[in-house]
Amino acid sequence: MTDSRLAIIVLAAGQGTRMKSSLPKLMHPLAGLPIISHVLATARALDAAHVITVLRHERERLAELVAFDLPESLLVDQDEVPGTGRAVQQAVDSLPADFDGDVLVISGDVPLLNAATLANFIEAHRERAEVAATVLSAFPTDVTGYGRIIRGDDGSFDRIVEHKDASDDERAVDEINAGVYVFGLSALRDQLASLTTDNVQGEKYLTDVIGLLRAAGSEVRAVPVADAWLVAGINDRAQLSDTAAKLNAVIVRGWQLAGVTVQDPATTWIDLKATLANDVTLLPGTQILGSTTVATGAIIGPDTTLLDCEIGEGATVKRTDGTLAVIGVGATVGPFAYLRPGTWLGADGKIGTFVETKNAVIGEGSKVPHLSYVGDATVGVHSNIGAGTIFANYDGVTKNPSVIGSHVRTGSHNVFVAPIRIGDGAYTGAGTVVRKDVQAGALAINVAPQRNMVGWVETNRPGTDAATAASQSGD
Ligand code: UD1
Ligand code: CA
């Protein structure tokens, strides 16, 4: 149910300079989704009366994401005055005049915070009507870069000092500001007007509102979060990989508890949108990415990457790289297969060792076991493609299709020069370059007859090891 007394402000206007990236910081992927998408999903789950996202840097690209993930959010453009305080000030100015509730401020770069933790936090704030603001704090192992919570002699919360502005004593404080706050609207509005840019970074700090509220005699509280990793902020790529590893550990554990065997959680990566059935086994070095789904009993890995793939019940996919591929029930893939988009393998089929497939529909029970390229092709059911076969789909101008029927047996080292059709039950000889369609049930061969020139080595290569071996041979 919509919380009519809650407005959420999502801060996403910062430049993200510490990322040193041409990709906007908040668009760097984390478990397969942009950083900001995690935050927008959390904001959405809280179902507030108003959501405002503040943008400036890379405005258009982020606006598109917000419109997709959180369409109910109002967008506010931050002006040239920098700082989290200015961002909140402009957002507050955009709230409807009749709104009079609590304002939750969250950061676009604090992605692991979940809706349940925030709901508890809002509740903690609302427990005492006289509290003007509540700050989420934490005790992480590495406090570098975070604002510190400064408490008075009696332990009560006094103010926040930014890392860059802090004295050595203040930097020694181990309680940090998570960058997440609930404010009573009127108290917030009053103090925002007094913010200055008088600090090391020349920004309007939202954190200064806390000190100002205290100076004005208001009560503020800092509520520590039990698990510091929930409020990890991402400013640089080291924090990005730390946060990704933590989130992955949580995701992997979740699947383990849901009945998935993960042999080596440290080398197994599962994106947030992937789904795995119970009794799936993931072997070391496996990445289940995007919207990949894996059905029960399938064994994936070791050393396998699957992006947006669909793996059927009981299938085995070993040492494989796959994108947008569908693998049937009981089928086997790999080791060392490369499945490109449009690969579809039927039940009990096989794509074997050193095989590359693209736009290839391979029917039930059909096999491409060794050293082949299958592109722009359809293979019927229960056919066997010989070792070392190439589907020559490209004539230098266009990609052409090949259609192989059912119960076909093709010899080793064939080239199918597309466009081509091979009828049901047909055979081809080893080494055939198939340039013409083959009728059902026919045998196609086009290799020249073999000629053995007896004695050629001893005559033309006298004195070589080959010639000696030949002369000593009993044949
Ligand atoms: C901020 C807090 C710090 C806290 C930390 C927690 C301030 C002044 N400091 O520091 O106390 O420990 O978060 O992670 O608030 N943003 C804007 N407009 C701006 C600047 C930033 O919208 O002008 C947004 C950013 O896009 C980001 C968030 O605000 O999502 C935080 O900004 P960032 O510059 O990362 O602040 P920190 O230095 O991490
Ligand atoms: Ca930050």
TrEMBL record:
Pathway: Nucleotide-sugar biosynthesis; UDP-N-acetyl-alpha-D-glucosamine biosynthesis; UDP-N-acetyl-alpha-D-glucosamine from N-acetyl-alpha-D-glucosamine 1-phosphate: step 1/1; Nucleotide-sugar biosynthesis; UDP-N-acetyl-alpha-D-glucosamine biosynthesis; N-acetyl-alpha-D-glucosamine 1-phosphate from alpha-D-glucosamine 6-phosphate (route II): step 2/2; Bacterial outer membrane biogenesis; LPS lipid A biosynthesis. Residues 238-258 are annotated as: Linker. Catalyzes the last two sequential reactions in the de novo biosynthetic pathway for UDP-N-acetylglucosamine (UDP-GlcNAc). The C-terminal domain catalyzes the transfer of acetyl group from acetyl coenzyme A to glucosamine-1-phosphate (GlcN-1-P) to produce N-acetylglucosamine-1-phosphate (GlcNAc-1-P), which is converted into UDP-GlcNAc by the transfer of uridine 5-monophosphate (from uridine 5-triphosphate), a reaction catalyzed by the N-terminal domain. Its EC number is 2.7.7.23, 2.3.1.157. Residues 9-135 form the MobA-like NTP transferase domain. Residues 1-237 are annotated as: Pyrophosphorylase. It comes from the Bacteria. It comes from Cryobacterium adonitolivorans. One of its GO terms (cellular component) is membrane. Its cofactor is Mg(2+). The gene is glmU. Mg(2+) binds at residues 109, 235. Acetyl-CoA binds at residues 387, 393-394, 412, 430. It catalyses: alpha-D-glucosamine 1-phosphate + acetyl-CoA = N-acetyl-alpha-D-glucosamine 1-phosphate + CoA + H(+); N-acetyl-alpha-D-glucosamine 1-phosphate + UTP + H(+) = UDP-N-acetyl-alpha-D-glucosamine + diphosphate. This is Bifunctional protein GlmU. The keyword Transcription does not apply.
